[in-house]
Design brief:
The protein is of the alpha+beta class. Helix 1 crosses helix 2 (about 45-80). The chain contains 3 helices and 11 strands.
């Protein structure tokens, strides 16, 4: 029986290089005994000391000049013979095996609410797989995280799911395609279900959608509906046309789909909740 819808992520520690210290002698290498010996000669002693000092200073200066000259020559030679190359930069490419999946993004924007509709049933079973024996349809594993508006994951959040089947019918006598679960310690959930079909109801022809009620501990209930991208392929239906015609549809509540082998899908949708009334 077909029923009305309900909507809604290295610094290089190069030590500072310390300049080498050059110790330059002061040129005085005479001793007190030498000075005393030549002091007796008076003027000759003074001349002798002056000669020694002058000669020593001259030798030292010459040695220093020669050293500087050799160093300069060596440096010039090195400049002429050794090519200048830029330092090798570390590679920025990470091995594929070490690349991690992209962290799910949180916009901080509250997930839009929608109407509940008339077909919600309380006391659904607690389970992540709502497909019961005999249910046909295109399988989808829907996963995501529940955040608050500060993008903090919300563990222990209650999520209720219910939907119609591949024919557009809701199970009103039992709990096929109905169930509830709680997010884990990372605020994540996983729903195993099928893609629902479109149907006609009180608001006209409804695009395929999954009903949800989401409530973090001590927070208001978010009632909304999740929709499917225009290029979804299931039951030979034109999802683009169905989405365009549904006046209750909110594109902000569209599931991101990835096709899997065998015609199945993986989907993702993150809820963002307002946790204060």
């Amino acid at each position: 029986m077909r029923h009305d819808d309900e909507a809604k992520a290295a610094d290089d520690h190069g030590g500072a290089r310390h300049p080498d210290t050059l110790h330059v002698p002061d040129g005085r290498e005479t001793t007190d005994a030498t000075d005393a010996t030549y002091a007796a000669d008076g003027k000759q002693g003074n001349s002798r000391r002056a000669f020694l000092r002058t000669t020593s200073a001259g030798v030292t200066s010459a040695a220093l000049a020669a050293t500087v000259s050799v160093a300069a020559t060596s440096a010039a030679s090195a400049r002429q013979t050794v090519p200048v190359t830029a330092p090798k930069q570390p590679s920025r490419v990470r091995p594929a095996a070490l690349t991690k999946a992209v962290t799910p993004a949180c916009s901080g924007q509250e997930t839009p609410a929608s109407i509940e509709g008339p077909l919600f049933k309380p006391a659904s079973p607690e389970r992540g797989d709502v497909v019961t024996p005999g249910t046909q349809g295109v399988r989808i594993d829907l996963a995501g995280v529940v955040y608050d508006t500060d993008c903090t994951p919300l563990p222990g959040t209650l999520i209720e799911f219910w939907q119609c089947d591949q024919n557009g019918d809701y199970d009103t006598s039992g709990f096929a395609l109905r169930g509830h679960q709680y997010t884990n310690n990372r605020g994540a959930y996983l729903l195993r279900t099928i893609i629902p079909r479109d149907y006609w109801g009180r608001w006209g022809q409804r695009a395929p959608h999954i009903h949800t009620q989401v409530q973090a501990p001590g927070s208001p209930v978010l009632v909304t509906q999740l929709y499917f991208p225009d290029d979804t392929e299931a039951y030979g239906r034109d999802f683009a046309a169905l989405n365009a015609a549904d006046r209750l549809l909110n594109r902000a509540c569209t599931i991101a789909l990835t096709a899997r082998p065998g015609g199945a899908y993986s989907g993702t949708f993150d809820f963002v909740l307002k946790t204060t009334a």
